[in-house]
Amino acid sequence: MSNRSEQIAYLIQKIARASVPTGSFVGKVEGVNTNDYTCDVMPISGGSIYYDVRLKPTVDSSDYGMIPIPETGSYVIVEPIARSNYFYISQFTKIKTLLIKNASGVTILFDDNGNLLLNGDQYGSMIKINDLLQLINQFIQQFNAHTHSVSGSTTLIPTGAPVQTIQASQVENSKVKHG
Predict the structure, then answer these.
(1) pLDDT at residue number 174
(2) Rounded Cα distance, 178 and 125, in Å
(3) What confidence category does residue 178 fall into, taking pLDDT thresholds of 50, 70 and 90?
(4) What is the pTM of this model?
(5) At 57, is the pLDDT very low, low, confident or very high (cuts 50, 70, 90)?
(6) Which residues face 42 on adjacent strands?
(7) What is the DSSP string of 18-78?
(8) Is residue 116 a contact partner of residue 178, using CB atoms and an 8 Å limit?
(9) Is the Cβ–Cβ distance between 79 and 39 less than 8 Å?
(10) For residues 102 and 153, what is the distance between their CA atoms, to the nearest angstrom?
């Protein structure tokens, strides 16, 4: 909230929530706070904006669990949190970002650029295993076929067994797929 009148509106709304019906309502997302995992929602039936509506049905501000981040201007269904003056979003028409985080800190983030981040992005992108194997196996074939010419008519041929090509099953984690 950026000015005094918004703060006053927020306090009045907080006091008036005791008389607000306990059922759900449909509203339009007016703004999103990704630090606190809240948003501001204007009921489509009219009335004042509901500030700090939670993006998950808990009163704490932790980022554990599954937290959909709605797109500003999208429509949502707002539900009250039982026996409290707090509300949360139960349904979303447009999700901009989705964060999933478990208690041990493992995160999965689907961002609004079409990226999937598993525990961040510090290791870069995932490998396209079939393309990599094709390049490695081409290199192995060239290595195995390589000979050295020496002065005169002698050609040196490598001795020993040729290097074997690589199969995807030897190097991939089949539990993680992409593409």
Answers:
(1) 73
(2) 11
(3) low
(4) 0.64
(5) confident
(6) 28
(7) GGS-SS-EEEEEEEEETTTTEEEEEETT-S--EEEEESSS-SS----EEEEEEPTT-EEEE
(8) yes
(9) no
(10) 68
